[in-house]
Structure formats: C-alpha cells, structure tokens
C-alpha cells in the first residue's frame, strides 16, 4: 500500500535535523515499505496488538514505544516523527502520550484512529468502586445507568480502557474500519479478523466473569490506578497507592494509613505492583501490613518479564493473580 506523503511544514519548523530526516524519508529511506503492505504506526503495545491482530499479513506495524519503556514518558525522536508522517494509518490513544498526540495532529496522515473516541471514558481517582459504577456502556459514552461519561483527552480521564476486554472489543471494531478505509482491497479480511478478535475478547471477558464470581474479598491494592475499568466491569474495588499517573510522587502518610485500614477491613492479603515501574512503595506497604506482593500487569508493553507473550496471555495471568489474591474459587 504505502501511500507516500510529505510532513507538514508545521512539524519541520525550527528543526533543521528533522527537516533532513523528513526529506530522507520522502526520498525512500523512511518508514514506508516496498512490499505492498499497509504501513501502520501504533503508539504503544495495546494499539500494536490491535493493529497486528486485525491487519495480519496485510500490515507492517511500527510501535513508537519500545518494550520496557514507560509509555506515559515517551518522547519522540525526529526520525520517529518523520516516519509517523509516512504512515498509511496511525492507531493511538489520545491522552496517554502527549508527544504522540501532537505528532499525529501535525502529521497530515489521513487514516488515523483515536481509541479513546471509540468507547466511553471516565474520571477515576485512587479508589474505584465497581459495585456502584459497574461498566455497562456500549461505546456510546453512556453507562447502563444513563450516566454520561466524560469527554476524553488530557482532562483527567482514565485512559486505561484496554484493561477492560469489553471496551477493547469496541475499540477493535473502530480500528478494523480504519484499516479497511486505508486499504479497501483487503476490506473483507480486516472485517473477518476483527470479528475473530472480538470473539477472542468476548471469551476473555467470560473467563473474568466466571473466574471472579465466587471470592472471599472484592478489594485489591495496586501501585497506580490502572485497573479502574476492570474493577467496574467485574464488580471489584480498586485501591491505588498512586493515582492515574504511575510516577505521581510521594504517597502521603494519611493515604498509607487509609490503605492499612482498608486492607484490614477487606482481608487484603496482596499488594500488587507492575513490571515497568519501581515496586519499592508496594513492598513497603506490604511489609507494614504483613502481606505478600504480586504482579498485576497494566500491559503497557510486553517484555521478557511479562507473564505471557501477548495481551490475552498476560490478561489471563492477571486473572489468575486476582483469583489468588481475592480467594476466588
């Protein structure tokens, strides 16, 4: 496919090195492929997963975020910006990576899809109670109780929609349409692959529903508030040490005392940390409580430390970790 295009002047202004890279890319050494595949750029792993699952052999996918890199902290190189502008399609999630949001806006790429626009987003704090706010939205921006979700994008909304398989399935449908628009010759394949992925995500959702039905506790503690949508979906309560930002700074003594009381009241036996950020705070809290630590992976990237080779496998590992921590049968 490889529809070639020049980078808009706005991206190149004041950056001579970027200008040289862009000219190099347009002359044939950039991100385009000569094998007829659709050249897709993904902002970070969950978007890469969608693009590859739906595109299969018809796409060449480039992930802007290298494995092991915290996506929220991503800074794009001039080469990455230039190559992004050479893409046939871009799959990203607005509000996660400001550098990507800006580059996509200035790129001039015709076929872009913002995952956040394909499902409802909400504002989540350090506590999310899934008993009161069980997610039942159908992608229209309203939940099953008629409450309107907040608009997405840089305003404090929780972007971690991919950790809810139902929401990710909604996003997958929009990604499939975008790839089909960019490559009409393979429209039927994209539609079939999208259906297959949605079925796989539906099966994953059923595993979570069944696996978390009978449990001794419904409260779990994490280092940062990435699992709000998951908690809402399956009637759990997430208590986070930090907020939406995994590196939001020191934790107050009052918050630590709150978590200690919550852990006692709700029989919490595990404090979860993640693979891409320091586990120090989680271990400190766990030591104070006399409980264990374990990994609950927000799946922002797949590394050798990940408990699985792809999104579905790591989500299944997350389910097993939650079942163990919550005493689910």
Tell me about this structure.
Helix 5 (98-107) links the parallel strand 3 and strand 4. The strands form two sheets. Strands 5-7-6-8-9 form a five-stranded mixed sheet, sandwiched between helices. Helix content is 41%, strand content 11%. Helix 2 crosses helix 4 (78-84), helix 3 crosses helix 6 and helix 3 crosses helix 7 (187-211). It is α/β, with parallel strands linked by helices.
Low-confidence stretches are: 2-34, 138-154
Rg over alpha carbons: 21 Å
- The general outline is globular
Q: What's the total count of β strands?
A: 9
The profile of the biggest β sheet is: 5 strands, mixed
SSE class: alpha/beta
Order of helices and strands: HHEHEHEHEEHHEHEHEHEH
Percent in strands: 5-15%
Distance between the termini: 50 Å
Features:
alpha/beta; 41% helix; disordered N terminus; five-stranded mixed β-sheet; four-stranded parallel β-sheet; 329 residues; globular; 11% strand
Brief summary of the model shown:
By secondary structure, the chain is of the alpha/beta class. Helices cover 41% and strands 11% of the residues. Helix 6 (165-182) runs antiparallel to helix 7 (187-211) and helix 7 packs parallel to helix 11 (311-326).
Walk me through the topology.
Layout: H1 9-12, H2 16-29, E1 38-42, H3 45-55, E2 59-63, H4 78-84, E3 89-92, H5 98-107, E4 111-114, E5 127-129, H6 165-182, H7 187-211, E6 219-222, H8 228-233, E7 237-240, H9 253-265, E8 270-273, H10 280-289, E9 292-295, H11 311-326
Parallel strand pairs: 1-2, 1-3, 3-4, 6-7, 6-8, 8-9
Antiparallel strand pairs: 5-7
Helix pairs in contact: 2-4, 3-6, 3-7, 6-7, 7-11
């Amino acid at each position: 496919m490889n529809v070639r295009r020049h980078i808009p002047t706005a991206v190149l202004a004041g950056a001579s090195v970027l200008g040289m890279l862009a000219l190099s890319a347009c002359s044939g050494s950039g991100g385009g492929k000569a094998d007829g595949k659709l050249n897709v750029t993904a902002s970070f792993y969950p978007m890469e997963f969608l693009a590859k699952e739906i595109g299969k052999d018809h796409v060449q996918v480039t992930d802007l975020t290298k494995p092991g890199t915290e996506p929220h902290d991503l800074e794009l190189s001039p080469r990455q910006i230039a190559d992004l502008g050479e893409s046939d399609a871009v799959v990203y999630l607005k509000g996660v990576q400001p550098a990507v949001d800006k580059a996509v806006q200035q790129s001039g790429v015709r076929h872009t899809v913002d995952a956040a626009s394909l499902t409802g987003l909400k504002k989540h704090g350090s506590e999310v109670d899934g008993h009161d706010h069980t997610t039942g939205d159908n992608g229209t921006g309203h939940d099953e109780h008629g409450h309107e979700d907040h608009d997405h994008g840089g305003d404090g909304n929780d972007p971690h929609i991919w950790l809810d398989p139902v929401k990710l399935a909604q996003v997958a449908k929009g990604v499939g349409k975008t790839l089909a628009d960019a490559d009409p010759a393979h429209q039927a394949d994209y539609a079939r692959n999208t259906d297959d992925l949605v079925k796989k995500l539906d099966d994953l959702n059923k595993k979570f529903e069944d696996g978390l039905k009978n449990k001794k506790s419904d409260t779990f503690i994490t280092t940062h508030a990435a699992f709000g949508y998951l908690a809402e979906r399956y009637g759990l309560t997430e208590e986070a040490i930090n907020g939406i930002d995994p590196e939001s700074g020191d934790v107050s003594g009052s918050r630590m005392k709150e978590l200690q009381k919550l852990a006692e009241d709700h029989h919490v036996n595990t404090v979860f940390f993640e693979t891409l950020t320091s586990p120090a705070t989680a271990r400190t809290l766990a030591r104070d409580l006399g409980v264990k630590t374990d990994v609950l992976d927000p799946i922002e990237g797949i590394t050798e430390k990940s408990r699985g080779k792809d999104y579905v496998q790591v989500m299944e590992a997350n389910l097993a970790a939650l079942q163990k921590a919550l005493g689910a049968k």
